[in-house]
Design the sequence.
């Protein structure tokens, strides 16, 4: 009787296991047919090129419109989180505003404005530690320190971009070409603060305005302005 009971229990368990496997095969995916595949490696070296857009701020003196190139090292943590550290170089342009010139002719240029930056990133992988049809979309917060070269000799108003902190939210996706190589495309919004010299608050000597109709370069009452500078970047990453 005891042997018969064991045989009946074993048969019941085997039947339940078979039914469970059939249900999974019906509802889910077979391993070879699943659109999800694990990302096996966690350390990456990436090179990227891109373009910086933007307007240079309301007074046009901030950096804008130029090529950007960079390198970055990434370390993936527990599936969804990834940390990055790197730097980039950009060849942008800017305008020069002569605070003493007449309104019609005081904006001059554009002139070259080179930027160099060091950046840290915290990345959230939206598909966790897997890819979906070889894609791995992500959102990211980047923080950095950027420096601009000295102003052109023709800028007599005292404005300089200087060295400043910035914040840059990012959205993008990687396309994995196997387990050790990916290509990526991303959009970043660079937020930084432009500081204007006091000469921008003065009336130009060649065309002074009136209290009701001022001709000063900066009539906002504030000597600082946060600007938004969009950037598109395309990269190639290799694991090691």
Sequence:
């Amino acid at each position: 009787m005891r042997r018969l009971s064991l045989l009946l229990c074993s048969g019941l368990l085997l039947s339940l296991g078979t039914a469970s496997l059939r249900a999974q095969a019906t509802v889910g995916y077979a391993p070879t047919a699943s659109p999800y595949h694990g990302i096996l490696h966690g350390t990456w070296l990436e090179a990227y090129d891109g373009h910086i857009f933007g307007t240079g701020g309301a007074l046009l003196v901030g950096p804008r419109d130029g090529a950007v190139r960079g390198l970055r090292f990434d370390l993936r943590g527990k599936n969804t989180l990834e940390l990055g550290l790197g730097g980039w170089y950009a060849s942008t342009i800017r305008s020069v505003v002569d605070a003493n010139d007449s309104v019609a002719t005081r904006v001059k240029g554009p002139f070259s404005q080179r930027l160099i930056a060091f950046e840290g990133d915290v990345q959230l992988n939206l598909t966790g530690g897997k890819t979906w049809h070889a894609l791995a979309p992500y959102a990211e917060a980047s923080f950095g320190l950027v420096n601009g070269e000295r102003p052109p000799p023709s800028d007599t108003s005292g404005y300089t971009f200087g060295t400043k902190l910035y914040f840059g939210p990012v959205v993008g996706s990687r396309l994995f070409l196997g387990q050790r190589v990916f290509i990526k495309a991303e959009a970043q919004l660079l937020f930084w603060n432009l500081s204007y010299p006091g000469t921008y608050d003065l009336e130009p000597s060649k065309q002074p305005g009136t209290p009701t109709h001022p001709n000063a370069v900066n009539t906002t009452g504030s000597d600082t302005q946060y600007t938004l500078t969009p950037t598109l970047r395309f990269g190639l990453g290799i694991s090691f």
About this structure: The chain has one helix and ten strands. The longest strand covers residues 107-125.
